[in-house]
Write a sequence for this structure.
């Protein structure tokens, strides 16, 4: 599904990713954790080509991302992304936010899209908020609209970039429940997160990054109990 | 200027957070300086100007002459319908068309300035800076002298009247300044909006037209109106090139009345008054819109 091979990425002289390699299978839910500045967010932004990579290869459903002739629009139709700051379009209502991309990008019939959008709103448990503007919604509600907006494109993979980092502890839960539902329905998810408890619960596989490399990885049971790398141990001991 | 509830009196430090909150009172040059100044003029300004014109002789013209100040004012009244109907109308006409042309090309130039194509972007920047920072009169002279007074299309000879050339000349700096407004407004939208729409597979054109522009359109209106006021007040420079607008006709009228010095104050005072009367409501409206559209982030 998503195959990342020896990816290097630098911002100027600062090397953020130093040869990252991993594979994500269909239906997997993968969590990437690690300290700030370890390249987690950069890595998932590279997957949908928001940041170009310097060398290596990222393949999404057979599309090579590191290709100068990459059809970015084709790639992004398959990869949904949710951001830390929600980034809803402030001049559109919740349902318009969700309907916009399928109608204009995929050129789907407006009535069909609206039916789907209403289902999605139900799925993220926001019935009754269809016609609210983002400014009228709480952070958690906005983030759930953002998730619905990405889902409306019927992506093959969903990327979540620290989606709960800007939320208060209470609203974090409602967003996490939404993501958990998704993962249980078999959506392929790649999450960058600081929510260890959540990672332990939903992830099939956890990757720990530090200073641009994957230091340790494994299933949640193994990862949280029997971490071998000293750097991972230190990180986990501070958090758990 | 909105006060902070419960706080009276001035802050004792100069920390920026303690400065009063007001729209667009930002550090750096104020883009709406003209409108702000005009809009802050009290409502009785035109009456004060009128009083000054009428009371002028009490202070200045005590020397004896056959042509009294009353005669001068009377001359003005006789000319007034003509000055407004044929003179000021042209100022409005020139400003209107210059604004129209300037806006259309300015928007295109503004888009070109944020183009991902480097040659286009750089040349657009150069054009913008060149026209923004050139003296308007020089631009006007170049256009006036470079454009032919008639053009031939398919055997038809079409005259280009001088006021139309003035329109082209004035639309150049307006174009450049509108381009800056457009560029600035687009760049004021957080980059996260570009990223979000990019990740939803919008093409660049769709992003610009459907996501970015609707968010910054309102922000462009106050500076745009500000430039209209500036342009209108600049139209009298066309008189230097013989365009028959308010100032040209005023001078002709004064010549017709033997150029008595008593005529200067009534005639030019009237010109000031009429420009004020035209631009003042625009400035007030600009300030009102500016307050209403103040960026909420």
């Amino acid at each position: 599904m998503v195959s990342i091979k020896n990816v290097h990425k630098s911002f100027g002289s600062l090397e953020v990713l130093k040869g990252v390699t991993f594979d994500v299978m269909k239906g997997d839910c993968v969590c990437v954790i690690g300290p700030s500045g370890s390249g987690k967010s950069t890595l998932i932004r590279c997957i949908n080509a928001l940041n170009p990579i310097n060398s290596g290869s990222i393949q999404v459903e057979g599309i090579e991302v590191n290709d100068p002739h990459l059809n970015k629009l084709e790639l992004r139709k398959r990869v949904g992304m949710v951001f830390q700051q929600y980034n809803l379009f402030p001049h559109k209502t919740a349902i318009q936010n969700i309907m916009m991309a399928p109608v204009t990008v995929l050129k789907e019939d407006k009535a069909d899209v609206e039916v789907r959008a209403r289902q999605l709103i139900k799925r993220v448990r926001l019935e009754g908020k269809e016609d609210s503007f983002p400014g009228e919604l709480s952070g958690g509600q906005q983030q759930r609209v953002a998730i619905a907006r990405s889902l409306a494109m019927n992506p093959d993979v969903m990327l979540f970039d620290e989606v709960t980092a800007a939320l208060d502890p209470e609203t974090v839960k409602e967003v996490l429940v939404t993501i958990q539902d998704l993962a249980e329905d078999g959506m392929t998810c790649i999450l960058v997160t600081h929510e260890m408890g959540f990672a332990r619960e939903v992830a099939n596989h956890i990757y720990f990054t530090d200073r641009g490399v994957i230091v340790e990885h494994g299933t949640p049971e193994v990862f949280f109990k029997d971490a071998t790398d000293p750097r991972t141990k230190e990180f986990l001991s501070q958090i758990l | 200027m909105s006060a902070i509830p419960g706080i009276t009196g001035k802050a004792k430090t100069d920390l920026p957070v303690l400065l009063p909150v007001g729209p667009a009172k930002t550090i750096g040059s104020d883009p709406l300086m003209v409108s702000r100044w005009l809009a802050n003029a009290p409502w009785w300004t035109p009456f004060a100007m009128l009083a000054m014109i009428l009371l002028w002789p009490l202070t200045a013209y005590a020397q004896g002459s056959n042509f009294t100040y009353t005669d001068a004012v009377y001359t003005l009244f006789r000319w007034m319908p003509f000055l407004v109907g044929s003179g000021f109308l042209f100022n409005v006409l020139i400003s209107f068309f210059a604004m129209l042309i300037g806006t259309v090309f300015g928007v295109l130039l503004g888009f070109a300035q944020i183009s991902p194509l480097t040659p286009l972007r750089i040349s657009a920047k150069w054009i913008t800076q060149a026209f923004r920072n050139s003296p308007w009169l020089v631009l006007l002279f170049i256009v006036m002298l470079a454009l032919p007074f008639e053009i031939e299309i398919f055997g038809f000879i079409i005259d280009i009247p001088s006021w139309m050339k003035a329109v082209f000349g004035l639309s150049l700096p307006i174009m450049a300044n509108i381009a800056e407004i457009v560029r600035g407004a687009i760049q004021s939208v957080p980059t996260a909006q570009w990223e979000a729409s990019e990740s939803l597979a919008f093409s660049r054109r769709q992003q610009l037209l459907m996501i970015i522009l609707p968010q910054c359109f309102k922000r462009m209106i106050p500076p745009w109106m500000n430039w209209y006021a500036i342009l209108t007040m600049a139209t009298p420079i066309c008189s230097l090139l013989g365009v028959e607008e308010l100032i040209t006709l005023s001078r002709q009228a004064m010549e017709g009345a033997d150029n008595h010095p008593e005529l200067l104050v009534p005639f030019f005072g009237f010109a000031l008054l009429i420009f004020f009367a035209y631009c003042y409501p625009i400035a007030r409206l600009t300030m009102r819109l500016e307050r209403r559209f103040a960026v909420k982030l």
Observations:
- Residues 66-145+159-292 of chain B form a domain with the MetI-like fold fold (CATH 1.10.3720.10).
- The longest strand of chain B covers residues 150-153.
